Amino acid sequence: MSGAYTKSDSLSLDNAQTVSLWRNRFSLTVRVVPGILERARWRNNLAYSLRHDLTIGIEYNPLAQDIHPTLNWRLVDETETRPSVMLGTSSDRIGTPHGTATYLTIAKSLKPQTGLPIAPYAGVNYSSYNNRFSFIGGMNVQLTPKLSLMAIYDGVATHGALSFTEGRHTFSLLAVDLDDEWNFGAGYSVRF
């Protein structure tokens, strides 16, 4: 049952199994950062996991009437010795008025090697707004089982997120650097 749901699956499953098959395949994310460009001020994303390694979605930025498809495809799963490799698309970085970003990243938890709850990532991003490639990167630090801190470099500026996760829900406080001016906001995500 790890693949995508098909109509024939429902013929051999009872109602509880059918509900379980769909559970947590969807995620809804809302992010609000007052004081920044309209397109990035209020961002919504609805995503669906086709498989454990492939998620598709739609991003809607209502203040700018901007809609973008999103994709996250984990090409290589992380192991104790090997990093994960991810390919994805979304709207362009937070400081741009329009455009699409396409990125390729590698990420690796270093806890097995260092004993520290850190997971850096690095990659390359193509910005259709700037019509150029840039290096991106960051690091996630797991402060407690439910609390994490992420530093993000989007190729131009550095941002931060402090996130608290409880079950299917994640609440985040955001710090966004645009032109050396910090803007603060919040995000919420739920899996269903």
Report on the structure:
Helix content is 11%, strand content 57%. The chain has 192 residues and is mainly beta. It has one domain (7-184). β4 and β5 (84-91) form a beta hairpin. Mean pLDDT is 90; it is low at 1-12.
Brief account:
With 192 residues, the chain is mostly beta strands.
What does the secondary structure layout of this molecule look like, with pairings?
Blueprint: H1 7-11, H2 15-22, E1 26-32, H3 38-41, E2 42-51, E3 54-61, E4 66-76, E5 84-91, E6 100-107, H4 111-114, E7 118-127, E8 132-142, E9 147-153, E10 158-166, E11 169-178, E12 181-191
Antiparallel strand pairs: 1-2, 1-12, 2-3, 3-4, 4-5, 5-6, 6-7, 7-8, 8-9, 9-10, 10-11, 11-12
Distance linking N and C termini: 17 Å
Number of domains: 1
Q: What class do helices, strands and sheet pairing give? A: mainly beta
Bin the helical content. Answer: 10-25%
- Average pLDDT number: 90
**What fraction of the residues are assigned to beta strands by DSSP?**
over 45%
The count of helical stretches stands at 4
Largest sheet: 12 strands, antiparallel, barrel
Overall 3D shape: globular
What integer value in Å does the Rg equal? 18 Å
Uncertain regions spanning at least 5 consecutive residues: 1-12
Number of strands: 12
Order of H and E elements: HHEHEEEEEHEEEEEE
Strand sequence of the main sheet, in spatial order?
Answer: 1-2-3-4-5-6-7-8-9-10-11-12
